[in-house]
Amino acid sequence: MSVDGDEPEVLGSWQNKSLKTTDPGKTYAVTINLSDFTAESYKLYYGTDKGLDSKGLFSIPTSPTAQNRALMIAAVDGAKAVVWHYPKTSIIGADAVTMDPAALGEMPVKATVVALNQSTPLGSVTPVFDLATGLKAPAA
């Protein structure tokens, strides 16, 4: 997971050195290494909504277009979990495909979180919860 954007800056005057702190915009993203070499993985990496042709081949487009998808990530550690949900992300290849004989081949894609509109949150994240009991609302 990554975040890009300017750092908050403290603005002041001669009389008040810390009059205001700026609220710079942030861009959130998740890089995922796809290890399945399938038509769906190729669509995300190469940036197209087209699948395999009649010969069973995938055509790499000359002008890639990021694919919009919802994204949910579940991090599980034993009986505990945390879940992130982003209703809209823009996904495209992030780096070169790797083919390491001692490891899995990977196609890295970057999912940049995109606002659905200005009045809804970018996404949501749960607190750590127990998988056996599920997520519960906090006590009032």
Quaternary organisation = single chain
Along the chain, the helix and strand elements come as EEEEHEEEEE
Strand segment count: 9
Distance between the termini: 31 Å
Strand portion, in percent?
35-45%
**Fraction of residues in helices?**
under 10%
Uncertain stretches of 5 or more adjacent residues = none
Structural class: mainly beta
| Overall pLDDT score | 88
Shape: extended
Task: Walk me through the structure.
This protein is mainly beta and 140 residues long. The chain has a domain of 97 residues. 6% of the residues lie in helices and 38% in strands. Strands 1, 4, 5, 6, 7, 8 and 9 form a seven-stranded antiparallel sheet that branches. Strands 2-3 form a two-stranded antiparallel ribbon. Strand 2 and strand 3 form a beta hairpin. The protein starts with a strand and ends in a 10-residue tail after the last strand.
Q: TL;DR?
A:
This protein is mostly beta strands and 140 residues long. It has one helix at residues 39-46, and strands at 2-5, 10-11, 20-21, 26-34, 67-77, 80-93, 107-113, 124-125, 129-130.
